[in-house]
Every structure is written in C-alpha cells, then in structure tokens.
Specification:
By secondary structure, the chain is an alpha/beta fold. It folds into two domains: 134 residues, Glutathione S-transferase Yfyf (Class Pi), Chain A, domain 2 (Up-down Bundle), CATH 1.20.1050; 111 residues, Rossmann fold (3-Layer(aba) Sandwich). It is 53% helix and 9% strand. The strands form two sheets. A four-stranded parallel β-sheet has the order 2-1-3-4. A three-stranded parallel β-sheet has the order 6-5-7, with no helix packed on it. It starts with a helix and ends with a helix.
Amino acid sequence: MAKIKTEFLAQYHSAHGTPLRDRLFANITPLSRLGGGPMAPLANWTLNNGLIRQGMERTLGISAKRSLPRFARQSFTDWFKNHTPIGAQRAVPLQKVVLFNDTFSTYNYPHIAIAATELLEMAGFEVVLPGVTDCGRPSFSKGLVDKARTIAKTVLDHLAPLAGQGLPIIFLEPSDLSALTDDYDSLLPNDPRVALVAGQCRSFEEFFAQLADKGELKLNFTDEKRHLILHGHCHQKALIGTKPAHRALTLPPNYTLEEVDSSCCGMAGSFGYEAEHYDISLKMAERRLLPAMRNAAPETILVAPGVSCRQQIKHGAGRQVLHPAEVLRAAIK
C-alpha cells in the first residue's frame, strides 16, 4: 500500500508539480544540518514562535498546533568525533559495528545515538558511522522517487563496503531500516548491493536480542524493578515484529514489559504535522494509545522506537517517552 501511494504521488507530482510543503519535508536532512549546531537557538525560537507558526500554517499547511522537533546545539556527529570510546585501551581488537545515525538522532535527539554508542562500546564493540544520515525515506514517502533513488545510491556507496566486510548495520529508527530492507529493491531493482546491505541491517533491539540469545552479551544490568509500556512502530510491526524489542527491553532481570494494543500512533511521518490531518491524527492516537499512556503510573517507563510515535505521545499525553537505547543505557550498573 505504501509503495502504491508513493507511485501515485510520483505521477501526480509529475503532472501537477510538487507542493512546497512536500519539498520541505523531503529535504529535512539538509534543513536540519542548517538548523542544528550554532544556529539551534535561533532556529528553535523561529520554529516555535506563535506568529511564525501561524504564518507557516497559512502558507505551507503545517499545523501551528503541533510542536516541532527542537535542534540540538551539538550534533551527534560532532560529539562522536570528540568522544573517547569506552574500552579504547583494550589490547584485543574490538569487533566493528555500523551505527546508522539518522537525521533525527543526529540533529534533534543526539542523546539517543549517544546512548546507543555507549551501550555498544560497553558490550565490546567499536562503533563506526556510515557518513550519511538521510536514507531517502522522506523523499520516498512524498513521492519524490528520483530524489530517493539518488539518495539510495549514495547510501549504498557508503554501506556496501562495510556490509561486504560482514559488519552489522544497526538502525535506531524503524522507518529508516524499512527503507533499506523493503524499499530500496523497488528503487534500484538491478543493484546487487541492495541485497548485500539489507542482509546486514538490524534494528537496535534486534541486534541486542540476537546477542543475548547467542549468549554473547556481556553487560551488567541493574536489579531494580521497573515496569515498561511499549508502543511499536508501524514499520517495525509489519516487517520485524516486536518480539526482539520485548527481548531486549527485558534484559535487565527485573524489568517487566507490556505492549499497547494499538495500531498507528497517527503521525505517519509528516501526516500528523499537516494542518488538514492534525485532528484525524490525534483521533487515531486517542483510540487506545494516548489513553494507555496517560493512565500509566508515573514511575512506569514509556518506550517507543519511532521518533514520530514519541512526538505524538508527548504532544497528546504530555508524557516523556524513551527510545530503547536510552532505557538500556540507563539500566547499566
């Protein structure tokens, strides 16, 4: 269904032109690169100013009711360049893994990628970055197929040599993972690198669950008792399922977990930001997701791998929601 939508949008844009709003969403990575770092205070003030937001709704159709992600003063890549890896002094060479630092975990929520990096290093791995943050998902979702295809080629240029070395490629964002494992074959059907790279791709939770199942995970987790509520991302549920997330999030021996029996959170990427879809976006979330999150005990840890899901829950329920990487990093003794 998603691919049918993309094909429809591509043909529609070809005949009628691409709306400015769709172009903005498709170019979220270069815009984030401009808005983050030293420009973050000004960008954050501008994008959350009431008058400016009203103007954006009138001219672009981006709902003024929906808060926009804030940019970080220090990007994840800047932190990564300057950090001292945990275990850097070990005599035995560490096994390398690739962490795909997506746009949001690089420019908006670097603490998530930092938590993932530290956890991987604690587990005995050397983390390398691919050198790209945009997988083409925003362009693909908005029907800009040619742009998505160009981005996909660039991503494969960076990832194929690493996949050829047998390195696992770990994703924090489910929609980025699904782009490489489910969409690239339609963008580049004759490129053998697609299957090579897809075969090495894992979600963050999947990677740690597999390590644990093989008895290869050496981490010292807390004995503290905590209860977690998980909301799975649509792409995650469709392609992987949430069993790996259940396994990973209950690696701390006294952590218990329940999953919200909900469908889509209602954000669906940029859908929930669009003024004409704002109300229905919240109605979808109010079916089950938001009531479950509001009614959770204050000490319960709320978890969602998807960035848009976390944004929806925070917006609609006023609750902090963590990425699995944050949960597991905080659970280390």
